[in-house]
Amino acid sequence: MTKLGRFLAVSALAALAAGAANAAPITYDEAIDGDLTQFMSLTLDTGVNTVTGTFNFLPGDNDNASIVVGPGKRLVGVTLDILGFTTTGTLSLSEARFGGGLYALPSVTVINALEATLIEHGVTLATSASLDLFSGDLADGRYLGGFTGGIATSGSGTLDVAYRWTYVVDDATAAVPAPASGLLLAAGLAGLGRIRKRRRA
């Protein structure tokens, strides 16, 4: 095989390997994957990553995850969807105070805090809600997202919140578009075909 043939073959294989190397974005669901324990570490990949679960205000439940954005990637959006509530007793939403939000680690720098009560963010027991906690460009690193604690100011019973965190991750550098990598592969294979024809002739 000539140098050109070897180059084209290696280029075609590299294009295939680059496509296969990308892992899929995570889809973590407490109902399937188990309770989101305090400070569990989840590594995000390029695309839309979701963490779905239920947070129990009372008794206190910590649904926190250390979110890892790997080298060469950036966090560009974080949304918290409140999907619904389950209550027992006389506890109301305004009485279940909690902490949480989105923080940078290890400094625990606040990016957007869910302070005091969901009701202050326009959420009621009768409605679901979507809260945009971040939109911008955060470099690779570790972040903390989740709910912490739960204290009843009055009333009694339990209050469970079904939620979904959505983390959108992009590549930090522009990747070769899929059509271009497909063209590279096709060119490499066509080149190999021509080289083989010449050798047979």
CATH-assigned fold name: Jelly Rolls
Based on helices, strands and strand pairing, what is the structural class? alpha+beta
CATH class: Mainly Beta
User: Could you list the spans in which at least 5 consecutive residues all have pLDDT below 50?
Assistant: 2-22
- Report the order of strands and helices: HEHEEEEEEEEEH
CATH architecture: Sandwich
The number of E-state strands comes to 10
Query: What is the number of helices?
Result: 3
Largest sheet: 5 strands, mixed
- Outline type: elongated
Sheet-strand content, in percent, reads over 45%
Please tell me the overall pLDDT.
Answer: 74
Helix content: 10-25%
Radius of gyration: 24 Å
Count of the separate structural domains: 1
C-alpha termini separation: 14 Å
Strand order of the largest sheet: 1-3-10-5-8
Describe the structure.
The structure is a single chain. Strand 6 (96-105) and strand 7 form a beta hairpin. The chain starts with a helix and ends with a helix. With 201 residues, the chain is an alpha+beta fold. Mean pLDDT is 74; it is low at 2-22. The strands form two sheets. The chain has a five-stranded mixed sheet. A five-stranded mixed sheet has the order 2-4-9-6-7, with no helix packed on it. It has a single domain (25-173), classed as Jelly Rolls. It has helices at residues 3-21, 30-33, 178-200, and strands at residues 27-29, 40-44, 47-56, 63-69, 73-89, 96-105, 109-113, 129-138, 141-152, 157-171. The protein is elongated, with a radius of gyration of 24 Å. Helix 1 (3-21) packs antiparallel against helix 3. The protein has three helices and ten strands.
